[in-house]
Amino acid sequence: MDLPPDSAPLAAELRNTLVRYHGIAGSQWRLAKKTKDATVWRKPSEEFSGYLYKAQGVVEDVTNRIVDHIRPGPYRLYWDSLMTTMDIMETFEENCCVMRYTTAGQLWNIIAPREFVDFSYTTSYEDGLLTCGISLDYGEVRPNFVRGFNHPCGWFCVPLKDYPNHSLLTGYIQTELRGMLPQSAVDTAMSSTLANFYSDLKKALKT
């Protein structure tokens, strides 16, 4: 896929997909991991042969500051231990961009470092924000990396009604790591990575 000349249709489609995921009934999710910071569920993905993961937890901070730490920008690389590099390749209007980033190896390097090129979009949602993304087939793959692919992913962040300085953060992630990997290793890594994402984010917001 080449870069979209008009990012608006892709952004609208991506938002609609994430809102649909957000409306999936609780009975369709199966518990994958629970920690003091977050709960992670999963269900078979409609996009590929792996899982769509849902992660949720309460984060003590205002919505805008949380989303600024998650979406493409200087904060994310600073605190996200999985992300090793990030470059914004193109910027569009309305909080849209294309970024390329790399991730560290996982599970004693059973999962080798990965590279992704994602279209990212941040928009309002109810009283909060939604930041979402999808991978593009774009650019040459760098040496020593496997090119992964993110099917529609995103993070909803809305303030808690009775505690406006706390926000409910809900993520939907479906990453196709590609390469020769046992599915059980991928599933273990995804659940742990999402739980750690919350604990790392909370630490970063306190500094």
Automatic annotation (TrEMBL):
PROSITE patterns hit by this protein: START
GO terms for biological process, alphabetical: cholesterol import; cholesterol transport involved in cholesterol storage; intracellular cholesterol transport
Chain coiled-coil ranges: none
SUPFAM superfamilies assigned: Bet v1-like (SSF55961)
GO molecular function: cholesterol binding; cholesterol transfer activity
Short name of one Pfam family: START
GO cellular component: cytosol; endoplasmic reticulum
SMART domains: START
Boundaries of every START domain copy: 10-207
Protein name (record): STAR4 protein
Organism field: Steatornis caripensis (Oilbird)
Source species taxonomy: Eukaryota, Metazoa, Chordata, Craniata, Vertebrata
Gene name tied to this protein: Stard4
